[in-house]
Design goal:
Blueprint lengths: L5 H23 L2 E7 L3 E8 L6 E4 L3 H14 L2 E8 L6 H19 L8 E8 L2 E8 L5 E5 L6 E2 L2 E2 L1 H14 L2 E8 L3 H20 L17
Helix pairs in contact: 2-5, 3-4
The protein binds manganese (II) ion.
């Protein structure tokens, strides 16, 4: 086969274009939708991994809404969350279950994970605070949290639940997730930088890598 022959060159160009088009179409369908009802919470979540960071979030916990909005805005993942939980007891179930449902929706949207970059990492500075997030969409959930918070509450949100949110998200999305606050003093900044670092790292990791758009990014052939 003469690769310099004009017709062959056209055919090669067309097949590359077709591969790219298939990747774009597959990417356009990377949406997830989860409806999760228990005796403790009722949660509806929709995500679009190829969005533009449009969100509509309502959990009944103001600070959690603020954080989920940051997650969407900085990951460019469109995010709808409607959670009605047993807040008259405490915020534990609502916090945990939104983490689970968003993780499940992301996992569903990733489907067989074809073409994804897979790894992502980001530093998020916020005034005096610096936080690092590194993650692998590995199918092997693992969670490392090196963050200390000195205040018992942010708004009305119990800060001990924040670690739990990240743990629930990592577990249900099947992500190896490491978050470390390197330094900082303001608790609002520390928590917000954790969500922003997660957002930026996630944005990288779910992105379609055009150099391997039709491949599963693992030598095992599955993730
Ligand atoms: Mn803020």
């Amino acid at each position: 086969m003469d690769r310099k022959h004009p017709e062959i060159k056209t055919l090669i160009a067309l097949s590359k274009l077709a591969k790219y088009a298939i990747a774009v179409i597959a990417a356009a369908m990377r949406r997830g939708s989860i409806s999760r009802k228990t005796n403790e919470t009722s949660i509806d979540v929709e995500v679009n991994l190829d969005g533009s960071g449009v969100y509509d979030v309502s959990t009944g916990i103001g600070f959690l809404d603020h954080m989920l909005e940051q997650l969407s805005r900085h990951s460019l993942i469109d995010l709808k969350v409607k959670a009605i939980g047993d807040l008259h007891i405490d915020q534990h179930h609502t916090t945990e279950d939104t983490g689970i449902a968003i993780g499940e929706a992301v996992l569903q949207a990733l489907s067989d994970k074809r073409g994804i970059t897979r790894y992502g990492s980001a530093y998020a500075p916020m005034d005096e605070t610096l936080t690092r997030c590194a993650l692998d969409i590995s199918g092997r959930p693992y969670f490392v949290w090196k963050v200390s918070l000195g205040m018992p509450r942010l708004g009305e949100w119990d800060t001990e639940l924040i670690e739990h949110w990240f743990h629930s998200f990592a577990t249900s999305a099947g992500i190896t997730l490491h978050i470390e606050n390197l330094y900082g003093s303001n608790n609002h900044h520390i928590v917000e930088s954790c969500y922003k670092a997660l957002a930026r790292a996630l944005r990288q990791a779910v992105e379609i890598d055009p150099r391997k758009a039709d491949a599963i990014p693992s030598t095992k052939g599955t993730l």
